[in-house]
Amino acid sequence: MVNSSPGTIAGPTPAPDAGNLWKRHQWSIVRISSPVVLLVAWQVLSATGLIPQDVLPAPQLIFDAGLQLVRDGKLTEALGVSGVRVLEGLLLGGIIGVVLGVAVGLSRWLEATADPPLQMVRALPHLGLIPLFILWFGIGELPKVLLVALGVSFPLYLNTFSAIRQVDPKLLENADVLGFSLWQRLRIIILPSAAPQVLVGLRQSLAIAWLTLIVAEQINADKGIGFLINNARDFLRIDMIIFCLVVYALLGISTDAIVRVLEHRALRYRE
Q: Are 158 and 111 in contact (CB under 8 A)?
């Protein structure tokens, strides 16, 4: 119910003018329009010959190359293969990273004994282990999945370990008073408190997973997006190579957006 003073009639709320709309959404408009302006400039410079086609093809040519892959069904098949590789590596590395993070975070003894070797392994460039992985596991799917898992595990391990060590000590003291078991502590106090930082680690791990896959699929791959890139390289199809790289980038952005939605829903109680 709207209160109004005697002798006045409440009128309709005036619509915001264009100036107010611009002030309110100017940065969103700029963020959206800047890539469009860049693509238009790229297309114009390519059409005028200022950007050589054998160095950087025009956006239209790249789009046509992608359309060709879609029509042939090759892109759909490659997306399925690469997606499975990332999913398997993410599940394996994620489970290992979170379990190690929880165990080391809860135990000072494990921190003293297990954390130093883990930090030594983390210091190794995991992509530099590709020759060893090929010698150990062959050139099939296993080394690709294991490389992704290795890259994924450490961000989740570090974030989980750090999050558990930052749990409010007063909550743990209350758990002692209430006689909580270890499982009750994990379920009611530790995991909910650690969830925000663990989700940050998951976003970092997803980025590393796609980066690792790009490199892993360049080596002895017979299917997947990396296989398409290798074929395009053999036939000097720069437009197709760039399109496949754009697909990798879009996959990384999409999976990151999914985790952000999950993060928002999982942590909505904080609002």
A: no
